């Protein structure tokens, strides 16, 4: 996606101006979270802003990677982590990380697509790649 670099710069700017409380998705009326996990190779903290699908006490995040045929790097880091630092609307805390697979994955996918139909379009753009789906549950 050609607009990706510009959107990512805008995201960083909005986060900086709002002191981390809001991102570009929040401005557009969609909930977003910032997750921080250690890089699986370097161990250095890596922070990523993501669209969040809120459900009860948890969030779902999907590795759509803008419809790319490859999984996003952050999803491999999250897959290797048991916990993540999650910031939502300026409040940060630890969350347990669970990759959703099996029977539960279909329900989570349907919930995510109902919440944000763009996931279906991104799946088609990716060639039908199965997006990694993670549950982030505050501790």
UniProtKB/TrEMBL annotation:
Transmembrane segments: none annotated. Belongs to the F420H(2)-dependent quinone reductase family. It comes from the Bacteria. It holds the Pfam family F420H2_quin_red. NCBIfam families: hi_GC_TIGR00026. It catalyses: oxidized coenzyme F420-(gamma-L-Glu)(n) + a quinol + H(+) = reduced coenzyme F420-(gamma-L-Glu)(n) + a quinone. This is Deazaflavin-dependent oxidoreductase (Nitroreductase family). It comes from Nocardia goodfellowii. PANTHER family: F420H(2)-DEPENDENT QUINONE REDUCTASE RV1261C.
């Amino acid at each position: 996606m050609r607009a990706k670099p510009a959107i990512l710069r805008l995201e960083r700017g909005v986060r900086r101006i709002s002191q981390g409380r809001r991102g570009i998705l929040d401005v557009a009326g969609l909930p977003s979270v910032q997750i921080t996990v250690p890089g699986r190779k370097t161990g250095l903290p890596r922070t990523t802003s993501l669209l969040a699908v809120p459900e009860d006490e948890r969030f779902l995040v999907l590795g759509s990677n803008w419809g790319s045929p490859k999984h996003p790097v952050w999803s491999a880091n999250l897959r290797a982590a048991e916990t993540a630092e999650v910031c939502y609307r300026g409040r940060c805390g630890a969350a347990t990380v669970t990759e959703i697979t099996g029977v539960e994955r279909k329900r989570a996918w349907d919930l995510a697509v109902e919440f944000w139909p763009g996931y279906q379009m991104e799946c088609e753009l990716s060639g039908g790649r199965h997006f990694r789906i993670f549950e982030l549950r505050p501790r």
